[in-house]
Structure formats: structure tokens, C-alpha cells
Amino acid sequence: MSKCEQCIVREFSSLKALNKDELIKLSDCKTSKLIKKGEHIFEEGENVNGIFCIKDGICKLTKLSPNGKDHIVKLVTKGELLGQRSMISDEPANLSAIALEDMHVCFIPKNEIMGFFDKNNQFSMNVMKTICGDLKTADDHMVNMAQKSVKERLAETLIYLHDTFGINKDETLKVQLSRDELASMIGTATESCIRLLSDFNKLGLIELVGKKIVLKDINKLKKMAD
Amino acid sequence: MSKCEQCIVREFSSLKALNKDELIKLSDCKTSKLIKKGEHIFEEGENVNGIFCIKDGICKLTKLSPNGKDHIVKLVTKGELLGQRSMISDEPANLSAIALEDMHVCFIPKNEIMGFFDKNNQFSMNVMKTICGDLKTADDHMVNMAQKSVKERLAETLIYLHDTFGINKDETLKVQLSRDELASMIGTATESCIRLLSDFNKLGLIELVGKKIVLKDINKLKKMAD
DNA sequence: ACATTTATATGATAAATATCATTTTTTTTG
DNA sequence: CAAAAAAAATGATATTTATCATATAAATGT
């Protein structure tokens, strides 16, 4: 079992506030899991009873809308924690977490985290700030969904994927979503998403390399996204 | 200056965790404000440096979208706290708060609240739970905006206004939004909103009493909202 | 390697929604 | 109370987006 003290991703999350003793306790109680591409870390409605620390890989957080379509609420990657909201609210998960690539995650049981809350103010504060950041992002996102056109949302999402997750050597976006997933991220029909990608391609804004996407004119895309 | 100890609305917010001594301190540092209908409590981008406790009245939280339209993110009423997210994130307000009717609010400066955070775990936990609740609502809302039609969103919003804020003696919705405001809550053009209200009226789902709205068939509206 | 499934793409069309113009109603103001 | 301004309502039309059908390309299993 690997030691939390030596784990680098810890430094990128609220867990950075933990001291040596707390980290040793953490190492003892955590369990390590490999999640394959397409598998769930947890599902909407499930009682999670702890949080997951993402050591490696990317996953999507989705919610089933009443019309039966999945909506991608957020992408989460290495260094971030999952399940904090459910744990604090003491409610089942509001979203499903599904791996977009093979992942390595650690599970930390609820009672351990709650102990840190009581004794380590900096840790509580970090968690609170993270959730506040999530809330701001969610509000902003909501306004975008409500007020922007599909075209604007697509442009914005491409920029987001580029800026947040970066590009490969061949300049294609590192996070490779299917057209279907991209559509469920911007909230539109798959065909509409594909059609707009074709349009963007013809306009020289992007280039479609098979299923992969290269952003060719980031400035124009940014203007387009408003 | 009225005493926080005797204030009833305190019981409906995170402040209920404060003990007698803390409430006395609170009374000493808080300032009381009357806000008239249409006035701001604070504006997007402003440094708030504390939180507001709503003693009476309702306000809308809006965000200006890049296309220049205001979007109503949330309605907030008596007993709730405002500005918690900005204070914790140590950032300017992400949203504007504008009174929908005359309001009575109390302002509590940041350093006072931060003191309670340090010393009163139950209070911190309450605040955290509130923000977690807000985050869940925001995520749900986002999915609705992205996946539902304007008609579904209108039906849902009417039900929400009914269930959350209740009705007057004449059965009209208590929160009286203009057509423009209703449209900016569901994310559509004012004319589209008006047209759909007319349709709902003709279908017998609602009744339009001047500018006021009566829900006539709540079950059908609920089905419509999904 | 070939058959089968799945993903991507495109056309045709329908439905939803926005925009612009105009009218009617309500509210405000002098 | 009348005039002006603002809000609500409706029609005509344009634009956006969804849906259904079908074609092509890529991935998968045996």
C-alpha cells in the first residue's frame, strides 16, 4: 500500500493541510482502486460514505435528466477530490462519476474525514473554499446554458477543454470526448453538435483529425464564445 | 437597535448554532438596513466583506450574461443568508442581489463571522451544509437549463414559485415577477415567455389575473415539467 | 479478415424559439 | 384627469435547433 505522505497529488487538494500524523492515519484507512475507462467510481443515488482522491486519470460527472439524457456537469482530474458534497450534506450522490480513461483513485472513509474537520481548521477551510469555487462555477455555467446559443456553448467548451486539459504532441485536444459526450456537455443533440463541428471546420476555426479535434483559431473561438 | 437574541429569522439559518454570548457579540457589530423594492443589496463585482441576514422581504440574485441580458439565478427570502460564498472564497460577489419588495436586512462584518468559524464547529458545519445544498441545486438547475425545453422550464418555474413562496388569498402567486423577470429566470425571450403563458392560460393550466398568475392545474403542470 | 456493431457524418424536414413590428393595456407622472 | 412611459400581448417572420432517415467510416468480436 503506497503512503499518502509520498503522494504528490495530495498537494493539489484540500488534503495539503494535513500534517504528518494525519497523513499516517490517512494511509492506514484509505483503500486504493483501479477504475477502467467507462467504469463508474460511483453512481447517482448511491451512498458513497467517504471521498475519492483522484491519483490519476480523468472522469466525467453526469446527471440523468428527466428526459432520459445524461448531462455532463463537470470533468474532474488528477489531484481533485470527489464526493465531498454528498458526504457533507449526508445525502446520496447527486451525480455519477464515470472514468474517461483508466484511473487510479483512493477512497477515504467518511469518519476519517469528519475527524479532520473537527481538528484541522485549515483543512475544513480548504474544503469549504473548494465547494464555494464549485458553486461559483456552477452558477456561471447555469447562466451560460440559459443564455447562450449552442454555437457559443460549443466554442466555449472547446476553449475550456483546451485551456484546462491541454493538447497532445499532434496538437489535438488531450481529453478525447465522443461527439455524443461533447453534445451532452453543451446540452444539445448529437447531430447538432456534429454539424456545428463541421461548420467550425469549414470556417477554419478547428480541424477534425478523425475523431480528434485541433483548435486552429483560438482567438476567433474565444470571440465566438463571447 | 434590535437584539439578535430576540430575532426569529435567526432560527432558520446557520446562525441558529450561535450561543447567547455569540448572539450578544453579533447584536453589537451588526448593522440594520432597509432596502426598497428595486434597490441593490450588493452588485456583481462588489467587495461585500461580510454577510447579509434577510429579516424580511424577497430578492433576486442575478448575473449579467455576456450577451447583456440579466439572468435570475435564484430567489432568496426571509431567514436566509447572503454573501457567504464570496466571503469564504474571499472574492467579489459573483451575483447581484436586488430587492423584489421592500426588505429588511442585517449586515454582519466578515471578521465577526470568521471568528464564529474558528470557535463554533456547528456553525461552520451549518454554513457548509447550506453551501453544499446550493451547489446541488445549482447543478440540478444547470441540467434543467441544458436539457429541458422552454415550456418545461416555465412549468417547472411556476410550480417552484408556488411551492416555495405560496399564494395570496385570491390564489395568485405571492412572488410577483414581471414577464421580463420570469423570462430571465427560465432563460428565454420575454415574448416567448408571454406567449407560453397565454398558451398555458388557453389550456386551462393557469389563469392570468392582470399581471398576476393563478395555477389552476398543478398536476398537469408538474407532468409538463417532467 | 470479415461480419457486426458503433460512431460519425450529412440531408431533409419539422418543431422550437428569437426577433421585429405593432397594438393594447397598465402604470406613472405632471 | 390627461399625457407619456412602461409593460404585456399578439402577429409575422427568420433563425436556431431537434428529429428522422440514411450513408459512410471506424472499431470490435470471432
Using only CA atoms, what is the Rg of chain A? Answer: 19 Å
> Multimeric state of these chains?
homodimer
Structural class determined from secondary elements of chain A: alpha+beta
How many domains of chain A? The number is: 2
Rounded mean pLDDT of chain A is 94
The side-by-side strand order for the widest beta sheet of chain A comes to: 1-8-3-6
- Described by the principal axes of the CA atoms, the overall outline of chain A is elongated
Element string of chain A (H = helix, E = strand) = HEEEEEEHEEHHHHHEEH
GO molecular function (chains A, B): DNA binding; DNA-binding transcription factor activity
Domain HTH crp-type (chains A, B): 148-219
Domain Cyclic nucleotide-binding (chains A, B): 14-110
Keywords (chains A, B): DNA-binding, Transcription, Transcription regulation
Jot down its keywords:
homodimer; 226 residues; alpha+beta; Jelly Rolls; Arc Repressor Mutant, subunit A; 2 domains; four-stranded antiparallel sheet; 8 helices; 10 strands; elongated; DNA-binding
How would you sum up this structure in a few lines?
The structure is a homodimer of 226-residue chains. Chain A has 226 residues and is α+β, with helices and mostly antiparallel strands.
Can you walk through the features of this model?
The structure is a homodimer of 226-residue chains. With 226 residues, chain A is of the alpha+beta class. Chain A folds into two domains: 4-145, Jelly Rolls, CATH 2.60.120.10; 148-224, Orthogonal Bundle (Arc Repressor Mutant, subunit A). Chain A contains eight helices and ten strands. Chain A has a four-stranded antiparallel sheet with strand order 1-8-3-6. A four-stranded antiparallel sheet of chain A has the order 2-7-4-5. In chain A, strand 4 (58-64) and strand 5 form a beta hairpin. The A-B interface holds A 63, 65-67, 69, 71, 73, 85, 88-89, 91, 94-95, 117-118, 121, 124-125, 127-129, 131-136, 138-148, 186-187, 226 and B 63, 65-67, 69, 71, 73, 84-85, 88-89, 91, 94-95, 117-118, 121, 124-125, 127-129, 131-136, 138-148, 186-187, 226. The first copy, chain A, binds a DNA duplex (30 and 30 nucleotides) through residues 149-151, 178-180, 188-192, 194-195, 197-198, 210-211. Chains A, B: Residues 148-219 form the HTH crp-type domain. Chains A, B: GO terms for molecular function: DNA binding; DNA-binding transcription factor activity. Chains A, B: Keywords: DNA-binding, Transcription, Transcription regulation. Chains A, B: One of its GO terms (cellular component) is cytosol.
